[in-house]
Design a protein that fits this description.
Shape: elongated
Number of strands: 0
Largest sheet: none
Strand content: under 5%
Radius of gyration: 16 Å
Helix content: 55-70%
Number of helices: 10
Amino acid sequence: MLTSHELFGFMSPALANEIVAFTFENEKPTYRATLNAVAEARRVRAVFLERQPKTQRHATMVESLTKPNLEMAAGNLIRTWLLKKYKSMLVDFLNALEIKNEDGVVEDLPKSIDDAKLKAAVDVLLAKYPPEAVAVYLNAFNDMNEANWPNLKSLLENDSRLQLGAHA
């Protein structure tokens, strides 16, 4: 499974920039925390990055978020983006799997899920949302939750529709 910093490394530059820009526009505390983490990792003051043109600053942030030492910042950024922009995707996925949830929040995930049900749920998402966003969500879901379903891992590795960067 891909970790959050690896997701930033494999996703298309367009999607990575969309995530950073969306967070800049809609979730200032997360954006500020990410900017501070990037500045610290680069051994510069945050104000140095803030003074850069936004496109340059965001490119610097995206490039930095591919590094293992920024795993936590990358994970927070992806989670925030998914929860704020694609909450409906989370709900749709869990509902298609018939997993009880409260607005996309789950108390206990099953230890495994039926292959046919999983494939059908993924098909629902791919019909409704951008394929690369679905791929990021499913990778993040499997990495960030305790479930770690082997059939989801296999689907992510083998389904061409779920390949990161392929839909740029």
